[in-house]
Amino acid sequence: MILFITGLIPKSTTRKHIRKRYLIGQKCPKNNIFYLVTKSTKKKRKFINNGLKIEIYGINNIIEIDESASYHEAHLIIRGNNNKFYIGKNVTACNAKFFLYGNDCSIEIGDDCMFSYDVEIWSGDGHAIFNDNNNRPINGGENVVIGKHVWLGAHTRILKGSKVGDGCIIGMSSLVNKKFDRNNCILAGNPARIIKQNMIWERPSPEYYLEKNN
User: Fold this and answer.
1) Catalytic position from the list 72, 75, 127, 149
2) Domain locations in the chain?
3) Where are the beta strands (DSSP E) in 120-168?
4) Is 48-57+65-213 assigned to CATH 3.10.450.350?
């Protein structure tokens, strides 16, 4: 089932149900439009398992989140028009914050990513910056891409225009501010850089594998 929820005022029981249960604390200007897309074969399955607060200020924005994604006290804010927020399969996050700022921008997160506590992703700066002799802002929003099976350490910050390859690990409190196309790397630092390559990670603890191999 693919379900589209459009508009702000519920016009059906299903739309009212989705808005009440899954758009927690939603704030949108009157008469603006957004699209919420969920893919599921189970009509009664919770769309977001543990809570994602959504605020949207703009028109023609698309939110697409796989039904298997699980959140705890996460927060998505969209400011702008024609943006897209995409979450793949089996993504988990605790207290993550997503700031999708700009026009025609996207935040894309691949399958099986694991967000540790207090991770932030920004596609824009939120406030305009100008040259002295020009009234045109120089700091518009840019896309952010997180590949598949990426582990984002606690307090990580991902800035606009960044890309993280598949299978990467981002060290605690790192600041990612550019594109890393290489897969299976450990990124760490402020700003982040590649410190190790050809690495893999899995969700169980190290003790699980140590005990298993004994």
Assistant:
1) 127
2) 48-57+65-213
3) 120-122, 144-146, 151-152, 157-158, 163-164
4) no
